[in-house]
Design a protein that fits this description.
The protein is an alpha/beta fold. The chain has ten helices and nine strands. 35% of the residues are buried.
C-alpha cells in the first residue's frame, strides 16, 4: 500500500454540482435498469402506475435536490409537481432495495479502475464526525468533546476518499464502539486488510474484534500539540467529511430512520462520483 494518490484525469471545471445533475440521474436510471434485469427490483404493486419517462427523471432529480439543498419533502413536492408522499415512497423503496449502496459500489470500482488501481482496496481509513440533529431524529446523544447534541457518522473510505461502509450512531457513542458496525460491513464484503484510524481507535478490545473479522486496526497519530498533521493516506477521510458538508441535508440531521440518513450520505458520494466519471479525459494513444 502506497501513500500516493494518483487520480484519473478529468476535464477542468468549477465545483458546481448543478452543472452535472443529469449525470447523477443517468447513473440512477442505469442502475434501476440493471436491478430490473437481474430481478433485484420487483415489479411495483398498487392501483397507480409506476413513475416512468420524464416523471421518473424528475423524481430522481427531486431526491438529489433534497440532499444537496436541504429542502423539505413537502416543499420539493410543490416545486416538481409530484406529491411528496409519492416521492418519499419512491425514495424509501429504493433505499430498502439497496439501490444507493449498489450504485455507489459500482461507481467506486469504476473510478478506482480509471485511476489505475485494483477494483477493491487493501487498506481503508476510518474516522467519525458528529453532526447536530433535531429532536425528531431517530436517535441522538451529546458529544462532550465537540459540544454537539446529535448523531455521529462513521466512515470507512479507500485512499480516494470514497466510502466502502457507512454507519450512524448517537453522538455520545465512543469511536471504538461506533466503528464496529463499519468493520463488520467491511468484513461482510470480503475486505481483509488494514483499517487506519486516529488514536481514538486504540484499545485491545477493538484490536481483538478486528482480528476476528480479519481486519487489522492501526491507530496512527495525526497531530502534534493540537495541530493536524497529515500522515500517509489518513487525511483523505477528513476530505470526505468536507465533501459531504456541501450537502445541506447532512449538516443538520432530521431523518426519522438511520437507513435514510445513510442513504443520503451514499447519494452525496454517488453525485460526486457521477460528475467525475462524466468528466473523465480519455488518454490519447500515439501510434
Amino acid at each position: 500500500m502506497g501513500t500516493a494518490v494518483k487520480t484519473a484525469r478529468t476535464s477542468p471545471a468549477s465545483w458546481d454540482a448543478f452543472s452535472d445533475v443529469d449525470a447523477f440521474v443517468d447513473e440512477v436510471l442505469a442502475e434501476l435498469a440493471a436491478m430490473k434485469a437481474d430481478g433485484t427490483k420487483p415489479t411495483r404493486s398498487g392501483p397507480k402506475p409506476a413513475l416512468a419517462g420524464a416523471a421518473l427523471r424528475k423524481a430522481i432529480m427531486a431526491i438529489w435536490c433534497l440532499c444537496f439543498c436541504g429542502m423539505q419533502w413537502r416543499a420539493i413536492g410543490q416545486l416538481c409537481d409530484i406529491p411528496f408522499n409519492t416521492l418519499f415512497s419512491v425514495f424509501a423503496r429504493w433505499t430498502r432495495l439497496g439501490l444507493w449502496r449498489r450504485l455507489l459500489d459500482r461507481l467506486r470500482r469504476t473510478w478506482r479502475l480509471a485511476c489505475g488501481d485494483a477494483a477493491e482496496p487493501t487498506a481503508v481509513v476510518i474516522d467519525s464526525r458528529s453532526c447536530r440533529s433535531a429532536p425528531s431524529c431517530f436517535d441522538r446523544g451529546f458529544d462532550g468533546g465537540k459540544k454537539i447534541n446529535g448523531v455521529k457518522v462513521h466512515l470507512g473510505v479507500d485512499k480516494y476518499g470514497i466510502p466502502l461502509a457507512v454507519d450512524v450512531s448517537p453522538a455520545n457513542t465512543h469511536d471504538t464502539k461506533g466503528i464496529l458496525p463499519v468493520l463488520c460491513e467491511l468484513s461482510g464484503k470480503g475486505f481483509r486488510g488494514s483499517a487506519l484510524g486516529d488514536l481514538g481507535y486504540r484499545g485491545k478490545r477493538l484490536a481483538k474484534a478486528g482480528q476476528k473479522l480479519g481486519i487489522t486496526v492501526e491507530p496512527v497519530a495525526r497531530g502534534h500539540d493540537g495541530k493536524f498533521l497529515p500522515a500517509g493516506i489518513c487525511w483523505v477521510v477528513e476530505r470526505s467529511f468536507a465533501w459531504i458538508a456541501n450537502y445541506r441535508r447532512l449538516n443538520s440531521v432530521f431523518e426519522r430512520t438511520k437507513e435514510h440518513l445513510v442513504a443520503f450520505i451514499e447519494i452525496a458520494f454517488v453525485s460526486i462520483l457521477s460528475r467525475r466519471i462524466k468528466r473523465l479525459v480519455t488518454e490519447e494513444v500515439c501510434a
